[in-house]
Design goal:
Length: 66
């Protein structure tokens, strides 16, 4: 496995960390779960895998508006 430094805006990092904490995961394991969900076409918010509209990060308080 490779290690990479990922630079995120502070607000995005806080949202990702909060989502990871809500799932009782480390940020790293949460990001791996997100990658798996994205590559499989499924997300926790869209179990049917509809790829037309991205799901918001859980706990972000924001939803994606097309």
């Amino acid at each position: 496995m490779k290690h990479v430094n990922l630079r995120l805006p502070d607000d995005l990092h806080e949202q990702a960390r909060a989502a990871a904490d809500a799932d009782d995961r480390s940020l790293n394991s949460w990001l791996i779960a997100v990658r798996r969900a994205v590559t499989s076409g499924n997300t926790p918010n869209r179990p049917e895998g509809d790829s037309a509209t991205p799901a918001p990060l859980r706990g972000s308080g924001h939803s994606h508006q097309p």
